[in-house]
Amino acid sequence: MDDILSVKTLPEPLYRRFRSDRVRVHEENGVVTLTPVQEPHGDTWAALTRLRGILSDGRMSTESYMAQKQIDKELEG
Length: 77
Prior knowledge:
Elements: E1 3-6, H1 12-15, E2 22-28, E3 31-37, H2 44-55, H3 62-76
Antiparallel strand pairs: 1-2, 2-3
């Protein structure tokens, strides 16, 4: 299982090397790998507002469902 850490928790020489705010920490056979975690592009609030609009009538059409799945995919990065 991997952990996600803020790069600010890393020692300064490592912290400077990352262009993201978070890193994935993976350990396998005693080897630790740090991988930058890319933040989702776009505005999260805008995505949530679109989602609220999709669900506002209490029903979800196929088109709305597909739109929500696309939003979810974008938020996952």
